[in-house]
Automatic annotation (TrEMBL):
SUPFAM superfamilies according to UniProt: Glyoxalase/Bleomycin resistance protein/Dihydroxybiphenyl dioxygenase
Protein name: VOC family protein
Entry superkingdom: Bacteria
Signal peptide stretch: none
Ranges for domain VOC: 5-125
Pfam families documented for this protein: Glyoxalase
InterPro entries: Glyas_Bleomycin-R_OHBP_Dase, Glyas_Fos-R_dOase_dom, VOC_core
Length: 125
């Protein structure tokens, strides 16, 4: 049953007023109408990203949101770099670095953080 349904990402933030410009302007997500204080949904392609205020924001050290970009990966990395995004560098088994990009065979990935420290990523898959 759930395998036939769309899912949405939910990302906890400390202050929506701080997080909203990052998700809307830096990442370029489209905000959707919201009448709930402390909650904002964004359109990302056919997916929804729900950003909500929580005291637990930024406590997850794993990736919370990923975009699989295929051939548009390099252009997206450059766009985010141009908007001031700083990419993380991790020492991961079986991955090397090409500048900010982590490489494993043909797979290329970057990780970066939102203002609350939530880890997001882009991949060329």
């Amino acid at each position: 049953m759930l395998g036939d349904q769309d899912a949405q990402a939910t990302v906890a933030v400390k202050d929506l007023a701080v997080a909203r410009p990052f998700y809307e302007e830096t990442l370029g997500l489209k905000p959707l109408p919201s009448d709930q204080p402390g909650v904002q949904a964004f359109q990302a392609g056919k997916s929804l990203v729900l950003v909500y205020e929580s005291e637990f924001a930024g406590t997850n050290k794993a990736t919370v949101l990923t975009w699989a970009l295929g051939e548009t990966f390099d252009a997206a990395v450059e766009m985010l770099r141009g908007r001031g995004v700083v990419f993380e560098k991790y020492d991961l088994p079986a991955m090397s670095h090409d500048g900010d990009v982590h490489v494993a065979g043909r797979m290329r990935v970057v990780w970066f953080k939102d203002p609350d420290g939530n880890v997001l990523s882009l991949g060329n898959y």
